[in-house]
Design brief:
The strands form two sheets. Strands 2-3-1-5-6 form a five-stranded parallel beta sheet, sandwiched between helices. It has one domain. The protein is an alpha/beta fold and 257 residues long. The protein contains seven helices and seven strands.
Length: 257
């Protein structure tokens, strides 16, 4: 399977929400040899039932690497259109984030998606890697010479509340591994949706409940924005995030912000 074939399976041309899918990870990933019977995607035991895909709810699947892909395929079976938002690049050498498992899952997932009929107007399931800033949610500070392919989500990476509401979306359900507050980047986006009139709720896989704190003063929102801007990430010429951390003698070029 070629890169374009894999991306087309995740972002069909006729699907309403495909323009929001990020192509950079597909573009920088190696191709995969076709197989006749792709292995099943990993999915741990869970009692979580996704909301009915009646067009009024959009999903945000914020789970670690391959698990996010597995639940994206589950969402497709439930009638949602997966929208991959992985805004990172496969490094030319070892990077801060090891993306091999995620890339393998995307190719495997593409085979599964090709066998699912998803209506073009299906509601979206936006997919994030919960380990986008470090494995297990732990922040990682790269050293000079490291390939920094950490990444974050911006509100402009997803449709606005106004656009979602124009297509009948009234609420957002966030699928997480545990009942814990979202990272600052996702929280910033959820607050923007909430301010635009959408209801937002959390759906932890372990069945627990979490009350999201979505009300924030203008000063809190500005503070969150500056935290995103000061995250020290590196942009890539192919789009998205990914670049070598310069040594002090090279200055700070290539950083984000």
């Amino acid at each position: 399977m070629q890169q374009q074939e894999c991306f087309d399976a995740w972002a069909p041309a006729a699907a309403r929400w495909s323009p929001w899918a990020k192509p950079v990870l597909f573009v920088t990933s190696p191709t995969r040899v076709a197989v006749t019977a792709p292995p099943p995607l990993p999915a741990p035991p869970s009692t979580l039932k996704l909301p009915v895909a009646d067009g009024r709810t959009a999903l945000v699947i914020d789970l670690p690497g391959p698990l996010s892909v597995a639940w994206a395929v589950n969402a497709a079976h439930a009638g949602y259109q997966p929208v991959p938002l992985y805004n990172t690049t496969v490094p030319p050498r070892a990077g801060v984030l090891d993306l091999r498992g995620l890339v393998d899952s995307l190719y495997t997932g593409a085979f599964h998606l090709a066998r699912i009929r998803i209506p073009p107007e299906a509601p979206p399931a936006f997919i994030l890697d919960a380990d986008r800033l470090g494995v297990g949610g732990a922040a990682h500070t790269p050293r000079p010479g490291d390939y920094d392919n950490r990444w974050i989500l911006f509100p402009q990476d997803v449709p606005s509340a106004r656009l979602l509401r124009a297509h009948g979306i009234e609420s957002i359900a966030v699928v997480t591994a545990e009942a814990r507050a979202p990272r600052h980047d996702l929280l910033h986006t959820l607050r923007a949706w909430h301010a635009g009139g959408l209801t937002v709720r959390s759906l932890p896989l372990n069945g627990s409940t979490l009350e999201l704190s979505l009300r924030a003063s203008i000063f809190q929102r500005i503070g969150e924005w500056f935290k995103l801007r000061a995250s020290g990430l590196h942009r890539n010429s192919a789009g998205g995030f990914g670049g070598t951390v310069p040594t002090p003698s090279q200055g700070g070029s290539g950083g984000f912000g």
